[in-house]
Amino acid sequence: MIEDWLRHNRENWDDRVAVHAASEFYDLPAFRAGEDHLRPFEPDELGEVAGRSLLHLQCHMGQDTLSWARRGARVTGLDFSAEAVRTASALAADTGLADRARFVVSDVYEAEAALGGERFDVVYTGIGALVWLPDLPRWARVVASLLAEGGVLYLVEFHPFTELLGEDGKAVERDYFDRAGETFDFEHTYTDGPPLSRTVQVQWHHPLGDIVTALAGAGLRIDFLHEHDHTMWPRFPVLQRAGAREYRYPAGEPRVPLMFSVRATRPA
């Protein structure tokens, strides 16, 4: 295990919050005005959430969390960054959703204790979350412990295959099965905005098989695994915009999976 990975990542994400909140990428004014932050396929895949309790792990500033609240869910967002939770709580108040949304500061591995053993109808975790976690089986056990009987995990993520590709989005430049953690030192985050002051971060690569196996090993039943040929931002220069927050390879060119989604149920 890389020493102090949790401290480095928490400090890095604390620094990102102010930059992200002011960025065009996240566009909080548009969200306050009613813009939906979910990918178009997500509500169809998860199904009706009105009246259901939904926990969003690693929620960052809460836009995805609150998008589910706008659909009628009673939501809880959890993130290890106190700065992110403060921003998310303020956003809930600004959008009139504070009566059905709360936000909690906790490392995801300590979520069960932080939430006092509460169980949820839905556990949701979204884009760019799993690379920050070194131990997937432990994460999957936490998810299972947070689900009510018959409850579902809904996971939407960047496809791990994309981590193999070079900057052009065409050539494979990395070993898919290299699971070792990597330490990076980047001056900027992935959005527009000024440089960060705490720049060290640690990430892990998780092959798709490891993710599904961890969920099955925690006793969850896999309902579906969908691989998507589009992503939410122009990660590679070859990608072309195809809709709201949707970018694809040009028609006629070979495609690779860019995102995936999993729904898994805790048996009753």
Automatic annotation (TrEMBL):
Biological-process GO terms, alphabetical? methylation
Q: Which CDD domains match?
A: AdoMet_MTases
**Domain of life according to the entry:** Bacteria
Q: Which InterPro entries does the record cross-reference, listed alphabetically? A: Methyltransf_25 (IPR041698), SAM-dependent_MTases_sf (IPR029063)
> Is Transferase one of the keywords UniProt gives this record?
yes
| Enzyme superclass (EC) | transferase
Q: Where is the Methyltransferase domain?
A: 55-151
Per UniProt, the keywords (alphabetical) are: Methyltransferase, Transferase
Q: Which GO terms describe its molecular function?
A: methyltransferase activity
Which EC number applies? 2.1.-.-
Pfam families in the record, alphabetically?
Methyltransf_25
Q: Which PANTHER family does UniProt cross-reference here?
A: TRANS-ACONITATE 2-METHYLTRANSFERASE, TRANS-ACONITATE 2-METHYLTRANSFERASE-RELATED
Q: Give the protein's recorded name.
A: Class I SAM-dependent methyltransferase
